[in-house]
Design a protein that fits this description.
- Pfam families: PALP (PF00291).
- Homodimer.
- InterPro entries: Cys_Synth/Cystath_Beta-Synth, SbnA, TrpB-like_PALP, TrpB-like_PALP_sf.
- This is 2,3-diaminopropionate biosynthesis protein SbnA.
- Keywords: Pyridoxal phosphate, Transferase.
- It is a single chain.
- By secondary structure, the chain is an alpha/beta fold.
- It has helices at about 20-25, 40-55, 70-85, 95-105, 125-135, 150-155, 160-165, 180-190, 245-255, 265-280, 305-310; strands at about 15-20, 30, 65, 85-90, 110-115, 140, 170-175, 200-205, 240, 285-290.
- Strands 1-2-10-7-8-9 form a six-stranded mixed beta sheet, with helices on both faces.
- Strand 4, helix 4 and strand 5 form a beta-alpha-beta unit.
- The relative contact order is 0.14.
- It binds pyridoxal-5'-phosphate (PLP).
């Protein structure tokens, strides 16, 4: 029984879900949402803060500032509250409301940028704002998840080893890409392992992380509107790009079986099952990484109006729907015509 006194001291790293009963292909999903920050970003936040403290960059009067689509912001909010630092998160309008409220509940300030950068994303605008803050006051400390080696090192030291321990005959690992911290930490670890592991990066259509055309992306976490500075493609065997509509269908398919995961998990699982369907998967040991859980996405991915406004009425078959209908007026609701179990 673990007993902790700091919230970042607990992180369940041993949980895998066997997705074969849902998708009919051999795939294990490593769940990274079971900690007090609710996501994989706790690992990167822990490592980056600890090394900034060791290097004397973080001092008692420092103000942490970071650009984040949400999850790193929550993790840093939690650590900052626990250690007594101030924290300002710079995010954008795609950040879920619940994620913003979480950061504020933990005592952080949140700044939301609204102007897109030249790639149609918000990253450039967010980073520019962080830079201007740091130039204006020397107490600001920017850990910079996009360039900080602590981001990938966290996964080299923890995520990759947890997978290796449970799956000594691992053949293929599917990893979603945002900053590429998870991808690079795991890829570097398995490059030195006792057997070759195929590293498959999963990105969303519209992201320019691996090149390609920028496009609209509404699901936070995965994808970048620039090339991730941490990315070294020589460690990546393959890249799969997933449409957001597929991400959503996959999330709902898992939710119908009781597993409520976040958007990027839908992307990674969708890419992985598509890859496995193209290969003779019978004897393959495959693992995918689920960065967070679904509760932060109840008003987006799991909300019918949001889905239909953005992706059209046909986004889900009626029997795939797990979302509830939010009516704008107080008019009585249509009876539920979905097939009942
Ligand atoms: C929900 C979610 N999925 C995936 C990622 C991508 O992870 P990484 O930044 O390590 O590439 C993030 C990063 O913020 C995330 O919040």
């Amino acid at each position: 029984m673990p007993v902790i006194s700091a919230p970042h001291d607990f992180n369940e790293g041993r949980l895998f879900v066997d997705l074969e009963p849902i998708f009919g292909c051999p795939l294990y999903l490593k769940c990274e949402g079971f900690n007090f920050a609710g996501s994989i970003k706790l690992k990167a936040a822990n490592e980056m803060v600890a090394s900034a403290e060791r290097d004397g960059i973080l001092k008692p009067d420092s103000i942490l500032v970071e650009s984040s689509s949400g999850n790193l912001g929550v993790a840093l909010s939690m650590i900052a509250a626990s250690k007594g630092y101030e924290f300002l998160c710079v995010t954008d309008s795609r950040c879920n409301l619940s994620t913003r409220l979480l950061m504020e509940a933990l005592g952080s300030r949140v700044h939301i940028v609204a102007d897109p950068d030249e790639n149609g994303g918000f990253l450039g605008t967010r980073v520019e704002y962080v830079r201007s803050l740091c130039a204006s006051d020397s107490r600001y400390v920017w850990l910079s998840q996009y360039t900080n080696p602590g981001n990938w090192r966290a996964h080299y030291r923890t995520t990759a080893q947890q997978i290796a321990r449970h799956f000594p005959s691992l053949d293929v690992l599917f990893i979603g890409t945002g900053t590429a911290g998870t991808l690079m930490g795991c890829a570097r670890y398995f490059r030195q392992w006792h057997r070759p592991v195929r590293i498959v990066a999963v990105d969303s259509v519209g992201s320019v992380a691996f090149g390609g055309e920028p496009g609209r992306r509404m699901i936070p976490g995965l994808g970048m509107s620039m090339r991730p500075p941490l990315l070294d493609e020589s460690y990546v065997n393959e890249v799969i790009r997933v449409e957001e509509a597929e991400t959503i269908r996959t999330c709902h398919r898992m939710a119908r079986r009781g597993f409520l995961f976040g958007g990027s998990t839908g992307t990674v699982v969708s890419g992985a099952t598509e890859w496995l369907s193209r290969h003779d998967a019978q004897d393959i040991t495959a693992v995918a990484i689920a960065p967070d859980l679904g509760e932060r996405y109840l008003d987006t991915i799991y909300q019918t109006n949001w889905l239909q406004d953005l992706y059209g009425d046909q986004i889900l078959d009626p029997d795939e729907m797990t979302a509830t209908v939010r009516t704008e007026e107080s008019a009585p609701r249509e009876p539920d015509r979905r097939p009942q179990p």
